[in-house]
Structure formats: C-alpha cells, structure tokens
Design the sequence.
C-alpha cells in the first residue's frame, strides 16, 4: 500500500507541475483570480475536486 500511495503522490506532483511548466502566464492568471475568491468558494472548489477524485477512484478501482 505504501508503494501505491507514493506512486499516487508522484503522479499528483507531475500533473500539478504541467500547467506552470507549459503555460506559466495562464497559471499565474489563474492564481490571481483564485485569490479574489471567498473562503466559501475556495472550499467549494476543494470539495468538488475531492468528490470528483473519489468518484474516479471508485470507477477505476
């Protein structure tokens, strides 16, 4: 299980790094917009992301 968690973490880092590597200006603009969100909006984005991730995990497992 530890190996699977490390592989998942490595994949997450690769995916998280794609946008700043390929399109740094778009990545910067995205974060400029994000800092204008309220805490509730940011929490909603995080919750939605977690739910989509859980659904994908259940579908592909």
Sequence:
């Amino acid at each position: 299980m530890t190996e699977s968690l490390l592989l998942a973490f490595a994949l997450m880092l690769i995916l998280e790094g794609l946008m700043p590597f390929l399109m740094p200006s778009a990545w910067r603009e995205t974060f400029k917009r994000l800092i204008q969100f309220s805490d509730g909006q940011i929490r909603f984005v995080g919750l939605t992301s977690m739910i989509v991730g859980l659904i994908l995990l259940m579908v592909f497992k």
In short: Residues 2-60 form one domain. The helical segments are 2-22, 24-34, 39-60. The chain has one domain: 2-60.
